[in-house]
Amino acid sequence: VELQSLAIKIARSDNLPVLSQVASALLRLVDEPNSSAKLLAQSIEQDPAISAKLLRVANSAYYGHQNVSSISTAVQLLGMTSIRAMVVGIAYQQVSCGQTVSSSFSNLDFWEHSLAVAIASRLIAKSKLPEQMEELYLAGLIHDVGMLVLDRFLPHKFDLAIQTAFSRGITLHQAETEVLGYAHDEVGGLLAEKWSLSERLITMIRYHHSPTGAGDLTLHCQIIAAGDAIARLSGYPNNSPDGLIHAYIPALSALQLTAEEIEPIRADVIAEVKRAQEIFHIRAAA
Ligand SMILES: [Fe+2]
Ligand SMILES: [Fe+2]
Question: Which ligand is nearest to the CA of 232?
């Protein structure tokens, strides 16, 4: 299936990895640095599932069992930054934790990796691009979204790509390229366009495996690529073989990250993913 015909399918389909209207509005809103707390709270309240989950998270042990009963109180108590991260996580989890079609594709693996890359990218941004930590969290979270399209529209080819990655010990990106002639980064760019995400996010998704193509956003893409490498080092390889570290060394050296810098990020990633699984009630399959 050529990329062009897949692009047409994505443009026409209603059967996409569905982002509820509210969730897609929220993704746009959190990407907008000047959005107000009030507007954000109002938008969250339009989606009962997201509201309920947010309140559960706000009342969880992690946030000290506060008695939060409204979204606007949650926004006040926890602050915009935490709310943004939570909302994005919840909205995205709704998309990525549905039933998969490809039998080899694990959405738990996908979710853990996405979250790990988000956390790692934000931490790397702290030293490399401090103004853009939140944007990089968001971009890190959704960078591999193209895989959801491959799972939905080309499940047999995607299965074959995953199996090829494991049998040959190559990255899933390489295996997709061999099987399909293109990979989830390009496909993710198309989906992000369909979702009307910002141009910046679309670019970051499209070039996370080839940062130098991203023009002004090269550093952003390098941070996501390095975040991806650290997610792998942390044990979240996303439906591909463990190890393969040699394939990810270039991403780490592009940012001149040293072992002393990487290690604490890795420890944080593991701790944060575990914590998120607890508060979002995600459990590893038995
Ligand atoms: Fe990727
Ligand atoms: Fe990735």
Answer: 2
Cα separation of 257 and 98, whole Å? 36
Distance, CA of 230 to CA of 163 (rounded, Å): 23
Quote the ligand 1 centre to 241 CA distance (angstroms): 14
Q: Which helix (H) or strand (E) holds 220?
A: helix 218-233
Give me ligand 2 centre to Cα 36, in Å: 31
Q: How many C-beta atoms lie closer than 10 Å to residue 181's C-beta?
A: 10
pLDDT averaged over every residue in the chain:
85
Ligand closest to Cα of 147 equals 1
**Nearest ligand to residue 186 Cα:** 1
User: How confident is the model over 261-286, as a mean pLDDT?
Assistant: 78
For 216-260, the pLDDT digits (tens) are: 999 999 999 999 999 999 999 999 998 787 888 899 999 999 999
Residue 162, pLDDT above cutoff 80 = yes
Distance 52 CA to ligand 1 centre (A): 31
Alpha carbon of 88 to those of 166, 173, 240: distances in Å?
Answer: 31, 25, 25
Does the structure show a pLDDT above 90 at 184?
A: yes
Phi and psi at 215, nearest 5°, equal 60, -125
